[in-house]
């Protein structure tokens, strides 16, 4: 059976972009693939300037949000990357087989480094650590959003290079598992929804906070008056309807929009209803975890132990393959 691994940066609470692009699928997959492994990648979150107190709060916030979203420690392994130091060990090994040019060509590196005066080497090495995250568990299926595809290509290349260099068939070639909601745009309707762009809707925001964001959110730019028929296929709000509402509601929205039956505000109110229905149980579970934080800590401690056992086994085998263990043959 496929081994599932995926990771998420501790950017605080989840937003509907990373929830719909990845985490909702993680929840579904954990039932189909017992032992799926999900990681809060805190080592990935320290490549830029940051405040340790804020990082501490965000690690906690992300672990709690994942549990509140339905990650079940009885089915899946949930852990904090820095609790398993083998990630950095394998990452070092992979730096020795990764061509510098492949890293310099990564889109995310080019974007990030163009904004920096002094570029920490960690920004360049970021995808090497990501390859190590996945291959440490010899995972072959990685549920992610579309923006991670290039990083996964590098992980596949890394696997092939290692196997070829040591003439083994040890690491699998991990492939992305995408969903129809693989790329959720921000409320501006332009860029990817992301915390750094400030265009998100947080999973734990109140109905009113969500409404204040939905009201001014971009719709079909050609629809100026309520009497203008809209084009659901180009409207970002319609994409969110598809994610949050049942098929019959989505069909009704498309019909009312394209015949100018509803205005954009009517349409957004129906979206709000769908979102509230999905998000209410998540908010409730999050409040329960706030009242009982030991449940989060216990889940991470158990998950860390389970992940580390697999990671140590892999590293033992990797050291063996690479001549980093044992005595010379006599
Ligand atoms: P991160 O933390 O940016 O995002 C976590 C997951 O959410 C997806 N995602 C989105 N999907 C659709 N629309 C959006 N607007 C959106 N925003 C985020 C991402 O594609 C991702 O699946 N480098 C990774 C973390 C990572 C990782 C790994 C992932 C480290 N090691 C190993 C998989 C396997 C990242 O920064 O994701």
Characterize this entry briefly.
It is built from 12 helices and 5 strands. By secondary structure, the protein is mainly α. The radius of gyration is 22 Å and the shape is globular.
Report on this structure.
The protein is mainly α and 330 residues long. It folds into two domains: 5-183 and 293-322, HUPs (Rossmann fold), CATH 3.40.50.620; 204-287, Tyrosyl-Transfer RNA Synthetase (Orthogonal Bundle). The protein has twelve helices and five strands. The protein has helices spanning 16-32, 52-69, 86-95, 100-104, 107-114, 121-135, 149-165, 207-214, 236-244, 247-258, 264-291, 294-322; strands at 5-8, 37-40, 77-80, 141-143, 175-177. The strands form two sheets. The chain has a three-stranded parallel β-sheet. A two-stranded parallel ribbon has the order 4-5. Helix 3 packs parallel to helix 12 and helix 9 packs across helix 11. The longest helix is centred in the last third of the chain and has 29 residues, at 294-322. It starts with a strand and ends in an 8-residue tail after the last helix. The model has no long low-confidence stretch (mean pLDDT 96). Tryptophanyl-5'AMP (TYM) binds next to strand 1, helix 1 and helix 6.
């Amino acid at each position: 059976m496929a081994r599932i691994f995926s990771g998420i940066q501790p950017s605080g609470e989840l937003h509907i972009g990373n929830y719909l692009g990845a985490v909702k699928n993680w929840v579904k997959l954990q039932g189909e693939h017992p032992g799926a492994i999900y990681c809060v990648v805190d080592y990935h979150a320290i490549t830029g300037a940051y405040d340790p107190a804020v990082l501490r709060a965000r690690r906690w916030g992300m672990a709690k949000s994942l549990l509140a979203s339905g990650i079940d420690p009885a089915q899946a392994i949930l852990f904090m990357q820095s609790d398993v130091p083998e990630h950095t060990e394998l990452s070092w090994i992979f730096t020795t087989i990764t061509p510098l040019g492949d890293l310099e060509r990564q889109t995310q590196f080019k974007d990030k480094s163009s904004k920096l005066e002094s570029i920490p080497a960690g920004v360049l090495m970021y995808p090497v650590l990501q390859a190590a995250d996945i291959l440490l568990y010899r995972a072959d299926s990685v549920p992610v959003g579309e923006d991670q595809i290039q990083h996964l290509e590098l992980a596949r290349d890394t696997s092939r290079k290692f196997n070829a260099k040591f003439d083994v068939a040890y690491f699998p070639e991990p492939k992305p598992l995408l969903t129809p909601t693989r790329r959720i745009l921000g409320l501006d309707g332009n860029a990817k929804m992301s915390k750094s762009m400030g265009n998100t809707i947080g999973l734990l925001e109140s109905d009113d906070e969500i409404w204040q964001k939905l009201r001014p959110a971009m719709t079909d730019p050609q629809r100026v008056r309520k009497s203008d028929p809209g084009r659901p296929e180009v409207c970002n709000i319609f994409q969110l309807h598809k994610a949050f509402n049942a098929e019959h509601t989505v069909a009704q929205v498309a019909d009312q929009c394209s015949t100018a039956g509803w205005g954009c505000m009517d349409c957004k109110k129906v979206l709000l209803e769908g979102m509230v229905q999905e998000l209410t149980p998540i908010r409730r579970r999050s409040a329960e975890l706030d009242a009982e934080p030991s449940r989060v800590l216990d889940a991470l401690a158990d998950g860390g132990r389970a992940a580390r056992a697999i990671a140590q086994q892999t590293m033992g085998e990797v050291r063996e393959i690479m001549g980093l263990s044992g005595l010379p043959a006599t």
